[in-house]
């Protein structure tokens, strides 16, 4: 549309800005119900990982894909508004610096360049494993990740009401589009 997204002296420095702008455009224009969530699949069913920024969604998603599950998304889980099936949105995984030590094999080749600076690694899921993109499937599990530095990893059940509130909090454009019928 002729509007600059970002500017930089070297091409690789534009990657974060371009990925984030494209993601925003997808969220703004998608007909699907979009959760602010990671998503993986296995055995014909999806696990949705909704959460706020810095909750650990992408880190958990990348780890689960590395462990053998397939990738639906690391940012916006697309749900069909009628069937509630999850559809793949295989944008690159935007891995934050705090998670870089967990995935050294995913470090971009451009990171070896002198002066390389980025806020996140933009990693295609195929860098983890070929054929890792999932097919559409029903959501069977909801996991609400929450990162707390130094805390033990625990899996704690929550009630349906609390889960519904968390889903609403982590749904893009919920107030504008409402819940599915």
- Sheet with the most strands? 5 strands, mixed, barrel
What is the overall number of helices?
Answer: 4
| Global structural class | alpha+beta
State the order of secondary-structure elements, H for helix, E for strand: HEEHEEEEEEHH
**What portion of the residues fall into strands of 2 or more residues?**
15-25%
Helix content: 10-25%
Separation, N- and C-terminal Cα atoms:
35 Å
Q: Give me the Rg, rounded.
A: 17 Å
Low-confidence stretches: none
Mean pLDDT value? 86
Major sheet: arrangement of strands: 1-2-8-5-4
Could you say which overall geometry the principal axes of the C-alpha atoms support?
globular
Work out the number of β strands: 8
Structure, explained:
- By secondary structure, the chain is of the alpha+beta class.
- It has four helices and eight strands; from the N terminus they run H-E-E-H-E-E-E-E-E-E-H-H.
- The chain has a five-stranded mixed barrel with strand order 1-2-8-5-4. Strands 6-7 form a two-stranded antiparallel ribbon.
- Strand 4 and strand 5 (85-87) form a beta hairpin.
- The longest helix is centred in the N-terminal third of the chain and has 15 residues, at 15-29.
């Amino acid at each position: 549309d002729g509007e600059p997204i970002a500017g930089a002296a070297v091409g690789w420095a534009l990657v974060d800005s371009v990925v984030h702008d494209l993601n925003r455009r997808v969220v703004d224009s998608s007909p699907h119900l979009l959760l602010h969530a990671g998503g993986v699949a296995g055995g014909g069913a999806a696990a949705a990982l909704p959460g706020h920024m810095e909750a650990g969604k992408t880190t958990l998603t990348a780890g689960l894909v590395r462990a053998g599950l397939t990738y639906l998304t690391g940012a916006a889980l697309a749900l069909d508004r009628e069937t509630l099936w999850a559809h793949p949105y295989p944008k690159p995984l935007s891995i934050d610096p705090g998670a870089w030590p967990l995935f050294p094999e995913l470090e971009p080749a451009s990171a070896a360049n002198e002066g390389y600076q980025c806020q996140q690694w933009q990693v295609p899921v195929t860098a983890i494993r070929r054929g890792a993109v999932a097919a559409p499937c029903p959501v069977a599990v909801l996991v609400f990740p929450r990162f707390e530095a130094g805390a033990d990893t625990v899996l704690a059940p929550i009630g349906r009401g609390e889960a519904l509130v968390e889903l609403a909090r982590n749904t893009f454009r919920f107030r504008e589009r409402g819940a599915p019928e």
